[in-house]
Write a structure and sequence with these properties.
Elements lengths: L2 E6 L6 H14 L3 E7 L13 H10 L4 E5 L1 H4 L3 H15 L4 E6 L4 H13 L1 H13 L4 H12 L4 H6 L3 H15 L5 E6 L17 H11 L11 H10 L12 H10 L13 H10 L6 H8 L6 H12 L4 H9 L6 E7 L3 H10 L4 E2 L5 H4 L2 H25 L12 E3 L1
Parallel strand pairs: 1-2, 1-4, 2-3, 4-5, 6-7, 6-8
Antiparallel strand pairs: 3-6
Helix pairs in contact: 4-9, 5-9, 6-7, 12-15, 14-15
Length: about 400
């Protein structure tokens, strides 16, 4: 039995994602595809446009056999920790042979070279990065320049480091190597629009362009050609009931949380320095909306994406001491199933026999399955889901179901 994993957000799942699942099976000869997917909040620091259960249904319809939620502490983090959490989860399942991912370069050697350099020259690279950050350079650009100075004739590597899927790719490879995961990384060339493209002008447009279209045009019909038929039916069914949730929809609740913590500052939250905490405090009276505040806080050395993640960490109580505790205790403590296919019984049996962590299929039973540290991580996921549901209810006046009453998505 061959098992291939994909790490994804599917926000929402589009034609390119469906192609990737099919291509992953072809490249690896996989019998089963496991998807590790972000929950209701994403790595860009924003709420998912539609909830994790609907996105699980989309993934299963598109060819996945099992969908597992990536815990919030990693799904809302930088590429390094996003990859570290996901790879650790896959390693602990004990059945994954391959990790397949799309990349702009489509070249596993280039990505492996970068990963090796980051591992073998960790201290040297780190010192170079920090010196450049102190000079006012953003962290992503500082790392690119550090690699450029460390690899002779490194044009191809530098170019690769400037593309988001490549960045995730070499972080996946680095995590596989660092954590001694017996998983083979496989990449295929990303096709269609670029990750950051906002215009729908390609048969395979980016998830960002689809979200932008929904936000700007308020017209579901405009994205119909960009998503698989079954995905469109889900979006159509949930339209203006629980979907779309847009970035600005967290504006009020975020402002409330910022005000709630104003007296103590924000330095306790992941990735937030004392200087950035002070910057939030100094500008809090200028807060108008989520996006406006991100624009206000971004600077030459702190990107918009990092600002967005930092604000999300505040909103969802993602704290440094908890993150350190999780890292020190081997990162991942459970695998929470969101959905599976009935035909995947062999895969589920294999995971049951091989997994080194509990498999959570029913939240009510979780406390009996998990250690206290595992429950701490899971309770953060549950709280985030309830916050997301609150945003849905406020926007659409639609009652939502408690996370404890949600059932696993099962398809034939």
């Amino acid at each position: 039995m061959k098992v291939t994993a994909i790490i994804a957000e599917y926000n929402p799942l589009h034609n390119g994602h469906e192609f990737q699942i099919k291509r992953a099976k072809q490249l690896t000869g996989a019998d089963y595809i496991i998807v590790v997917m972000s929950g209701n909040f994403t790595q860009r620091g924003v709420p998912a446009i539609i909830d994790k259960y609907e996105r699980t249904q989309m993934a299963l319809n598109a060819g996945a056999d099992l969908v597992i939620e990536l815990p919030l502490y990693y799904s809302s983090s930088s590429a390094e920790y996003f990859a570290s959490g996901a790879v650790n989860l896959l390693k602990k399942l004990g059945v994954v042979d391959y990790l397949a991912f799309g990349s702009e370069c489509g070249d596993i050697k280039i990505l492996t070279d970068i990963a090796d350099l980051l591992i073998d020259h960790k201290e040297e690279i780190s010192n170079l990065i920090h010196s450049k950050v102190r000079e006012g350079m953003s962290y992503p650009m500082a790392r690119v320049r550090a690699i450029e100075e460390s690899i002779p004739n490194s044009y191809m590597h530098v170019e690769a480091m400037e593309s988001p899927n490549n960045i995730l790719g070499f972080e996946y490879i680095r995590a596989i190597k660092q954590f001694n995961a017996n998983i083979i990384p496989v990449t295929n060339l990303r096709i269609g629009s670029g990750y950051h493209d906002r215009m729908i002008d390609n048969p395979i447009s980016s998830a960002l362009s689809i979200r932008t279209s929904l936000e700007e045009n308020n017209n579901l019909e405009m994205i119909k050609s960009q998503v698989p038929y079954q995905v469109y039916k889900i979006l159509e069914d949930k339209y203006e009931k629980t979907f779309p949730i847009l970035n600005e929809d967290i504006s009020s609740i975020l402002k409330y949380k910022l005000l709630l913590d104003e007296g103590k500052g924000y330095e306790e939250y992941v990735d937030i320095s004392a200087d950035f905490s002070d910057k939030i405090l100094k500008n809090l009276n200028k807060y108008v909306s989520y996006s406006q505040f991100c624009d206000l806080l971004k600077s030459k050395d702190i990107t918009y994406a990092r600002v967005a993640r930092n604000l999300l960490h505040i909103l969802l109580n993602i704290k440094k001491d908890s993150m350190q505790k999780f890292k020190d205790n081997d990162y991942i403590f459970y695998a929470r199933m969101l959905g599976f296919k009935k035909s995947s019984s062999e895969l589920l049996s294999a995971i049951k026999n091989s997994s080194s962590i509990p498999i959570i299929s029913k939240l009510a039973d979780a406390r009996n399955q998990l250690s206290p540290i595992g429950m701490d991580m899971l309770e953060t996921d549950i709280q985030a889901a309830h916050i997301y549901d609150t945003i849905v209810t406020e926007k659409f006046q639609t009652p939502t179901v408690s996370e404890f009453a949600r059932e696993i998505i099962i398809v034939n």
